[in-house]
Amino acid sequence: MAKNKSKVNDLVVRFANVNGTGSASANYLFAKAVFRMGIPVSPKNIFPSNIQGLPTWYEVRISEKGYLGRRDGIDVMVSVNPQSFAKDIASVSSGGYFLYDSTKRLHSDLIRDDIHFIGIPLMEICIREYTDPRQRLLFKNIIYVGALSELLKIEFSVLEELIREQFSGKEKLIAPNLNALQLGIQYVKEHFPEQINFRLERRNLVGDAILMDGNTAAGLGAVYAGATVASWYPITPSTSLIEAFEDYCKQFRIDKETGKKNYAIVQAEDELAAIGMAIGANWNGARSFTATSGPGLSLMNEFLGIAYFSEIPVVLVDVQRAGPSTGMPTRTQQSDILNAAYCGHGDTKNILLFPSTPAECFEMVADAFDLSDSLQSPVLVMSDLDLGMNDHMSAPLKWNSDRKYKLGKVMTEKELDALPKYGRYLDVDDDGIPYRTIPGTHPTKGAYVTRGSSHDEYAAYTEDSPTYVRIVNRLLKKFDTAKKMVPKPEIIKSPQETKLGFLYFGTSAYASQEAKDFLAEHNIFVNAIRIKAFPFSKEVEAFIERHETIFVIEQNRDAQMRTLLINELDVNPKKLIKVLNYDGMPITANFIAKEISVDLKAHLYLSKESVSL
Amino acid sequence: MTYLKPKFHHPDLPKNKLGYTRKYYEGSLSTLCAGCGHDSISAAIVEACFELNIEPHKVAKMSGIGCSSKTPAYFLSNSHGFNSVHGRMPSVATGANLANRDLLYLGVSGDGDSASIGMGQFVHVIRRNLNMVYIVMNNGCYGLTKGQDSATADVGSKNKSGNINQFEGIDLCGLAIELGATFVAQSFSGDKAQLVPLLQAAMSHEGFALVNVLSPCVTFNNNTGSTKSYDYVREHLEATASVDFVPYAEEITTQYEEGETKSIQLHDGSWLELHKLAQGWNPEDKISAINALQNARKHHEILTGLIYLDTDNKELHDLMNTTDVPLNKLTQDVLCPGLEVLESINADLR
Ligand SMILES: Cc1ncc(C[n+]2csc(CCOP(=O)(O)OP(=O)(O)O)c2C)c(N)n1
Ligand code: SF4
Ligand SMILES: [Mg+2]
After folding, report:
1. Domain CATH number, residue B129
2. Model-level pTM?
3. Average pLDDT over residues A601-610
4. Which residues does chain A have within 8 Å of residue B323's beta carbon, measured at their own beta carbons?
């Protein structure tokens, strides 16, 4: 048996449960307790596209260094699902621990001699302690959290505090939950008194961070941005975003006097209708949005085209999942980039934002409304399942109290009065952005027919080629203006001079930053750029120009961001090296380092003997 | 082009209560084929709005794609219009209406636009009882793509290229009643006397109002053997009753004999007067309305007039309990919870 020295605050714990057995809140309790002990933590749900019965996992990375991406290797596996025992045991790292329900004996074929087995008769304890079958099921989860917390030395007072918070208002439930925790703790004290190779120690490393999922943050962002109309069609992993919007609206958007709603949410008949409603509402001067995932985005294609061409604001949050087609609905990917950027037939280009954290989901959704109104064009916020549905340790949500909604160039009645002749698509300010009017503004001025067919500067139908070309070229000019308005990339310079670069976006940031540090430890230095928006601003162009080789790290098979960069910036493709993870699991630093070491050797940046990555 | 519009206006042209002439309710010159039924419907819309004293800028004209869906450019040039995408007008109208409940939403669609590509949205906008007028300019064919059969073409109807339709025609009125539409009327583009009051009533109705108008396509579906030609429609019309619309605050003057007339008051206080009502038939009763439609179908008649009306209904905003203030008028101080709230949300997430 391999003997590891006891590691503090650096481990991966994975829980193996059966879908639909109430394990989620118990597992969350564990993750939150680590967070409350001031230790950076990153939990991820790995769940099936199923409601009840299939295996589901919850993986918690705990990292003193603050790395929040996934990491290869499982140190402690808590398995209460005999269905997946074989797979779960096989996945534990050598020297690791397998904590399981030992009510039934483990088959001897499953025993590995390079890992530790910690059997706790969870079901037996439950049958002894509880008579209600539902309680037996639920408390089983709490008992293993108790056992695990004792093994890892989680402070009981932290767990107690969390239980009290969770059941405030339902105080009756506090004592039984604390009792269940104790059952687990006591069992471990009696049967496994020795310290295991991993333990947790209180730190002060989380600062003012919050633990939140991206969809909740995005839904709240829409509330703060003043969205009043949300139309949607259920699809994993975007559903919880609209649910969060609704929850917050119920708290903050009910008129106190009348009890009526200062918002409207429609569950549409499909995604075509969802985006159609959002466009109709924006056209009529209300901020409106929809949220969807890959299959829905495909259906929204035609509508995005009309919004682009007739210049109607609309915000869409795409919580990406693994495609193509239905793909793996509960797995993550960044694979809608190209479809989103050019969504709409004909020459269409959309504005994209790429959040990496819940704080950015909040901020970028709010920014998306300002940008969309200012540019009169669709803005797509490109989240993904990992960001949207998992809790992330994130900077707190920020809102500047002086912030005013940027509603863009909307003509008032007075302004129309002062105008000799209004033209909906006139480029008055030479920035490619025309002035729009909202229906009902003026009795005799400013009315026009919005259409997806070719139109002139006065919104009249036209098939005149020069006019058509003038209009579509102005749209390009507007796209150029957008480059100056979208969020700038984040650039992280290496202290050493280097010609190597990392380019990444969204949730690839976590593992990329860790991989970057890892390479630096081996004397390989890279500068990094995190893309936050499309169109690419001049900073992106300059970064690519400054470096000889850039590793483009993304989570799709076809290197979609790389294609977009090559297409839009005329970059020499040889400069951009693909680093692609597309198995549906969040990308890891180990994967990036491995991929890159192969490339570096091939490119002779790295002599064979210098490091073994 | 159907009718040329005189550039010169006589100063004594009649004005409505708002001081606007009919001309003020017109649109730009139609580019549809001369004689197209759709142009007559546009004219009826102009007339109805003029007579109802509607503020054009308080109207939003919504349409899909097709010859019919082009017409919003040909009436009410002082209203905003949205010529959207094929079959999806209902969703755009829904969003627009949610944003501002104070405008009058005039939707225009075709039989292809509504009964084929847009069937899903047609069905759902009715279910939701969106407060709008939904006019189908129904010619039994796809005019704009050169005359293919549409889903409202009757079984056995022959189109211009000689094909005989094999498939069951969809009866939009029957379907709408089934789905819970609260105002359902059917008319003929050539019967302005009936169409104008029906449109006025539809505009005064709160809730979803379908006006299905048979509107012959002179270019592709006006041949012998077509059941949507001018001749066929004229021969097979069966009016449920003659229709008078009496606006709010005006007095009912015409006297009819007892028993023959039914008056229904609409939400805005105006009255719909139905005279010479067909025997044994009550437009306020769903079953009776559906029976009448089925009977007409059996006898190859085209029932016109008010088919069904339910004045006691809740439109979408009332069903959803949205505020009385149009959502697009709410400002940041009402909409944004502010920094303090955010700080407490942050605190709860630690
Ligand atoms: C997505 C899409 N498919 C097909 C078309 C082509 N198209 C334009 S109009 C039309 C049919 C219109 O028929 P209808 O709604 O009955 O209008 P009409 O011209 O008869 O008034 C079709 C199929 C289109 N514009 N968009
Ligand atoms: S093709 Fe038919 S529907 Fe279209 S404008 Fe001509 S007559 Fe009207
Ligand atoms: Mg048609």
Report:
1. 3.40.50.970
2. 0.96
3. 52
4. 255, 258, 260-262
